[in-house]
Design goal:
5-stranded antiparallel beta sheet, 29% strand, 4-stranded antiparallel beta sheet
C-alpha cells in the first residue's frame, strides 16, 4: 500500500497533487492487526458449544464426569424466586440450616460429658471458644468464705474465664463433701462384728421414715392389699352329692349304672349300627344347669347315662333313655368345671376344674374318693384305658405340662414337659400304647406311654391351635377342630399325616373349643359352632349335608350315640343339653 501511495505519473511531475485526491490511498489509522488477512472465518467447535455443563444437583444424585469447581458452584438455572427470603434460598440439609460434619474424639466427648455431669462444668467445644469453661455451678466458691483470698480468686477467674478445669479423668483435690467416713472393723477374728468392705458410712441413715402424709397413703395401700388377699384365699368346698330319684335301685336291686335291656337297642353290642341317618328334630331337652355347659360325656360302652360339667361348678348325671331324668348332682368345686372322664367300667369318674383341683368321684354313691391339687389349672383329664393301668390318669395343665397321677398313692409319677403352651387335649391311640396331645403352641405331639419325650412333633406355619380332638369309633382317624374354622383329619395308623382331602369347612369356631364327633359307622362328621348351630358333613365327599340351629349361644359339645342310628346329643353355653333324632 505504501508503494502504491508513493507511485506518481512521469508526464506531469511538476504539477502539484492535491491532498484530497490521495486520501483514499492513505493507510487506515489503526494497528497493524487490521491489515492482517484472515483466510477462514471463526468457527465454534463442539467443545466450545458444550463448554458450560450444568450440574443438576436437585434431582440427579450421580455425576458421570469430573466437573470443575466453577461448574459445581454455578447458581441454579432459571430465575430466582423473588418471594423467598435469603434464609429460604440458602443451602440446607436440615430444617434449621446447613450442618457440617465435624470430627470430635469419642474419648474427649465422653470426658467432657461426664465432667459436666459430675462437676457442673466442661470445655466449650466451639473453635472460637477453645479453652473457655462453660459452667452451671461454681464449686470453688464457698458462700461462707468471706476472706480476701476468695475475692481474689473470683477476680482472677473472671479475667481468665476459667475454673480449675480438671476433668473427671484427672486427679483433683477432694472436696469436703466427697469424702465420707466408713465404719470399719477389719478384725476377721471378731465373728459377730466383722464388717470388712461392707461397713456402711458413719452418717448413713439406713431406715428412712416416711412423712405423715406418705404414711397415711402407705397404710391405705396395705389395707387394700390385705382385703384383696383375703378374697384370694380360696375356701375349701365340701364335696356333696344329691340324689334326685326316689329309688336308686330297681326291683332286682340293681343300681342306675346297670345297662338297661328294654330300650329297643342292644346297648351291650360292640358292633356299630349298619346305617346312620341325619338327625332332624329335637326329641328332648335336659335343663338343670344354671350356667353354661362346658362338656358332656356318655357312659362307657353302653351310653345309657350322660355326664355333664358346667360353669356353675356342678357335675350332673342324666338318663339317656326312658324318662330321661336327672339322677345325681355332684358339687365339690369352687370354680367352673372344665372336663370330666369315666373309667372303663363307669363306676368312677374324674373332674378337672378351674380351682386347680382334679377330683375322683364314685358315680353311684356320689362320694369324692380323692382329690389331686395341682398349682396350675387342669384343662383336660383322661384315664389310661388299659385295664391294668386304670389307677393312672393324665392331666394337661396350663403350665405346658402333661402330668401322670397315681390314684393309689396320690403322687405324680411322670411329667411330659415339651409343649410351649397350655395343653388342651389328650387322646389315647394305637391300642392305648400312645397318646396325642394338642396345645396352644399350635402343635400336635405324639407320645409313647411313660416316655417323657415326644417321638412325633407335628407343627406347620399354616397350622392353628386345635383345642378339641375326637378319635373315630374304629380308631383309625383323629379329628381335630382347628381354630381356622376347619376340621382336620389325621391318619392314626399311618405316619400321623394330615388327610388333605378330608377337610371339613363351613362352620365358625374361631375362639371356641367346639367338640366334633363321628357317626358310629363312619358315614357322617358332626360339629357344633360358635353361633349355636350344628353342622353335619358327609365323610366320603366332605360335603355339607345339614345344618340347623341347636342352641341360643355357642354349641360347645356334640356326641353321636354309639348304638343309635341318628341320635345326636349337643350342649351349649345356654345351659341346656339337647337330644336330636
Amino acid at each position: 500500500m505504501d508503494a502504491i501511495q508513493g507511485y506518481g505519473s512521469s508526464e506531469d511531475d511538476n504539477e502539484p497533487v492535491k491532498e484530497a485526491e490521495l486520501l483514499h490511498l492513505k493507510p487506515l489509522p489503526s494497528t497493524s492487526k487490521a491489515l492482517m488477512v484472515k483466510a477462514a472465518p471463526d468457527v465454534l467447535t463442539a467443545k466450545g458449544i458444550f463448554d458450560k455443563r450444568i450440574v443438576d444437583h436437585t434431582t440427579n444424585k450421580e455425576v458421570f464426569y469430573n466437573p470443575t469447581y466453577q461448574e459445581l458452584y454455578l447458581p441454579e438455572q432459571g430465575p430466582e424466586n423473588p418471594f423467598k427470603t435469603k434464609q429460604q434460598l440458602a443451602q440446607k440439609n436440615m430444617l434449621s440450616g446447613y450442618v457440617e460434619d465435624a470430627h470430635f474424639n469419642d474419648f474427649n466427648f465422653e470426658n467432657q460429658r461426664k465432667t459436666f455431669h459430675s462437676y457442673g462444668f466442661c470445655e466449650d467445644p466451639s473453635v472460637n471458644g477453645a479453652g473457655t469453661i462453660v459452667s452451671t455451678t461454681n464449686f470453688a466458691d464457698d458462700p461462707d468464705d468471706k476472706t480476701e483470698d476468695r475475692l481474689e480468686k473470683i477476680k482472677d477467674r473472671k479475667s481468665k474465664k476459667v475454673i480449675d478445669g480438671k476433668t473427671v479423668f484427672e486427679s483433683r483435690p477432694l472436696r469436703t463433701e466427697d469424702r465420707r467416713k466408713r465404719v470399719r472393723n477389719n478384725d476377721a477374728t471378731d465373728i459377730e462384728g466383722f464388717l470388712g468392705p461392707w461397713g456402711g458410712y458413719v452418717d448413713e441413715e439406713k431406715v428412712a421414715k416416711p412423712t405423715e402424709e406418705m404414711q397415711k397413703e402407705l397404710d391405705e395401700i396395705v389395707a387394700k392389699r390385705k382385703k384383696k388377699g383375703k378374697q384370694a384365699e380360696e375356701k375349701t368346698v365340701e364335696e356333696k352329692s344329691s340324689l334326685h330319684i326316689q329309688d336308686p335301685l330297681d326291683y332286682q336291686g340293681r343300681s342306675f349304672l346297670h345297662i338297661p335291656q328294654d330300650v329297643g337297642t342292644n346297648l351291650k353290642s360292640l358292633d356299630p349300627p349298619d346305617k346312620c341317618y341325619l338327625p332332624k328334630k329335637l326329641i328332648h331337652t335336659w335343663s338343670g344347669h344354671t350356667k353354661a355347659v362346658s362338656s358332656i360325656k356318655l357312659f362307657p360302652r353302653s351310653g345309657h347315662l350322660l355326664l355333664s360339667t358346667s360353669m356353675d361348678c356342678k357335675v350332673k348325671l342324666w338318663e339317656v333313655y326312658k324318662k330321661r331324668r336327672l339322677i345325681r348332682t355332684y358339687s365339690g368345686h369352687s370354680k367352673a368345671v372344665r372336663d370330666s372322664c369315666f373309667n372303663n367300667d363307669g363306676t368312677k369318674f374324674l373332674t378337672a376344674a378351674y380351682d386347680k383341683h382334679v377330683k375322683l368321684w364314685d358315680t353311684e354313691t356320689g362320694q369324692c374318693i380323692s382329690k389331686f391339687a395341682t398349682n396350675k389349672i387342669p384343662y383336660c383329664v383322661k384315664f389310661n384305658p388299659d385295664e391294668d393301668k386304670q389307677h393312672l390318669f393324665v392331666a394337661g395343665t396350663s403350665d405346658k405340662k402333661i402330668v401322670t397321677w397315681d390314684i393309689n398313692s396320690g403322687e405324680v409319677v411322670q411329667e411330659y414337659e415339651r409343649h410351649l403352651g397350655a395343653v388342651n387335649t389328650i387322646t389315647f391311640v394305637d391300642n392305648n400304647k400312645k397318646f396325642v396331645s394338642t396345645s396352644d403352641d399350635k402343635s400336635l405331639r405324639v407320645w409313647e406311654w411313660d416316655i417323657p419325650v415326644d417321638y412325633k412333633y407335628i407343627a406347620d406355619p399354616s397350622m392353628h391351635s386345635m383345642p378339641s380332638t375326637t378319635l373315630s369309633a374304629n380308631g383309625k382317624w383323629l379329628g381335630c377342630q382347628s381354630l381356622n374354622n376347619q376340621i382336620i383329619i389325621f391318619d392314626v395308623h399311618g405316619r400321623f399325616r394330615v388327610k388333605r382331602k378330608k377337610i371339613f369347612k363351613g362352620h365358625m369356631v374361631a375362639g371356641y373349643a367346639c367338640q366334633m364327633t363321628f357317626s358310629p359307622e363312619m358315614s357322617y362328621v358332626a360339629s357344633g359352632d360358635g353361633d349355636g348351630k350344628v353342622f353335619i358333613w358327609d365323610w366320603k365327599t366332605t360335603k355339607l349335608f345339614s345344618k340347623f340351629q341347636a342352641h341360643d349361644k355357642v354349641c360347645i359339645g356334640c356326641i353321636w350315640h354309639p348304638h343309635e342310628t341318628s341320635k345326636l346329643i349337643t350342649c351349649g353355653w345356654d345351659g341346656q343339653i339337647k337330644l336330636w333324632d
